[in-house]
Amino acid sequence: MRLLRPLAGTPNRLALSLTVLYVLCGYGSVLLARLAAGPLPVLDFAAGAGLICLLLGGRRGYLSVWLGSVIVQLPQLAMMLELQPALLLAGLLALVSTAEAHLARIGWRNSEMRIRHPLLREPRELAHFWLHVAMLPPLLTQPVQLLLLNLAGLGGERGFLETGWYLLMLVLGHASGLFLLGPCYAGWRDRGRWPRLLSLPWWWIAAFIAVLASAFLVYRHTLMLVLPLLLVLAIQYGLPGTGLAMVLLAVASVTATARGLGIFAGGMPGLSYLNLQVFLFSTGFMLHYLALAQSLLLRHRMRLEAEVIARTEALTASNAKLAELATIDALTGVRNRREWLRRATEQLLQARRYPAPMSVLVLDLDHFKLINDQHGHHAGDLALIAACDACTASLRASDSFGRWGGEEFAVLLPATSEEESRRVAEKLRQAVAAICISLDTGAVVRITASIGMASLRDDDHDLERLIRRADDALYRAKRGGRDCVVCDSGEA
Fold first, then answer.
1. Does residue 100 have a pLDDT over 80?
2. For strand 444-446 and strand 436-438, is the pairing parallel, antiparallel, or unpaired?
3. 240 and 361 fall within a common domain
4. Nearest CA-CA partner of 487 in 406, 426, 412, 407
5. Does residue 9 surpass a pLDDT of 70?
6. Which of 49, 124, 196, 376 is deepest in the core (most CB within 10 A)?
7. Once rounded to an integer, what is the mean pLDDT over residues 259-274?
8. 129 plus 38 within the same structural domain
9. Strand partners, 403
10. What residues are paired with 455 via a beta bridge?
């Protein structure tokens, strides 16, 4: 197909390319038929090429099939008939070939409409493909072709049984062409979903040729050794690999049988080719089924892995959300009491192990209940949020700010001396005092804060004692008139 790609730039070039493809397959089938004893139509790759022409070319594909069939059959008919009758018969036989390709295309498209995705992507579709695409079209059209040949006097003097046997081989030959080339088209159509055949290891090709040569030249039963190679190919390279291998195996088997070589040679020629057809069908059906099953398993595994990854990411996000809900105050977005205590305890242990100053501030919004009573709880929530934002903006990244409960907040100042802590507390007080909240009712709410401060001492054996001293300082600030900072030493 890569060689035909430059010719497929326009619809007319595509039609020409499909005609060339049909003619090549047709002459290849004619050559195999001449090699066979009788001659018997063992494999008709032109039937499979006709299906490909209609699937790729649409309406122009019909012209490609008809014209290609005329080109293939006219030279043979011209040797047996006059030119005008030969042209007429070639045109009629080409119509039969086009009708066969049309019926195969209908079976293909109907199957796709029934399964609602491209055909030959799942193993359960293989039996439907064999029956409706590969078998029924030859069964309906080849009797017409045989009838036309008999009317033209080219049927020979065959008896009833001979005619039935010839028709059976004719139907099986066309069905084999469809059965062998249909998966090749499906593999090319889905080439992005399969491994590239160019990566096929050289040893596989050498082993395949060696097994066939041994089966046809040395010991015929060694042909069974080709099955393990085909199984590996089906697993590693899927439908494209098995389709190509089955075409090569079919051509080699027919050629060897026609030369009297291999496991199918000997005895009645017709029976030999019938056994060969059964072998090719059973082997191809098994390999195609295995390839499609392997592809289905890989898709299920990829889908399962993607689902596991998605659920893992969702679980991770949920855990992160739960962790956030467990450590963050839902209203204000600052740390809650439990998370603040955990971080403060860690800082206290650090300050004890590597002696460093540390202070705790306890902040309370003044007359907060009055805001709720006069303006509603929504105004109170706005006041809490505004106070948190103002304090967070005034603190360092290393400081810990959290909601202690209600309108009370706690601040941990690591590596901060008592004098520096006083300045930080005063900065927080001023930031809160500068808050001005405009409500929808037109009212303006202003808030202030009282702050109690305590610095770490040698006798502070735990965090609870340090917080208690800061809390006592806060109560003194409230009794002292509010909107002020009081140190646990009594200084304001």
1. yes
2. antiparallel
3. no
4. 426
5. no
6. 49
7. 80
8. yes
9. 409
10. 359
**End-to-end Cα, the chain, rounded Å:** 91
Q: Is residue 443 part of a domain?
A: yes
Q: How far is the C-alpha of 188 from the C-alpha of 49, rounded, in Å?
A: 13
Choosing from 255, 289, 307, the residue where a domain stops is: 307
* 360 within 8 A of 411, measured Cβ to Cβ: yes
Of 151-155, 390-394, 485-489, which range is least confident?
151-155
**CB contact burial 372-381 (16+ within 10 A = b; e otherwise):** beebeeebbe
Mark whether 347 and 462 lie in a shared domain: yes
For residue 403, is it within any domain? yes
Is residue 346 domain-shared with residue 255, that is, in the same domain? no
What is the domain-level CATH number for residue 475? 3.30.70.270
Question: Which domain range does residue 205 map to?
Answer: 2-307
Give pLDDT tens digits for 338-387.
999 999 999 999 988 888 999 999 999 999 999 999 999 999 999 999 99
- C-alpha 441/C-alpha 472 separation (Å) is 38
The Cβ of residue 354 has, within 10 Å, a number of other Cβ atoms equal to 8
Whether residues 289 and 424 fall in one domain: no
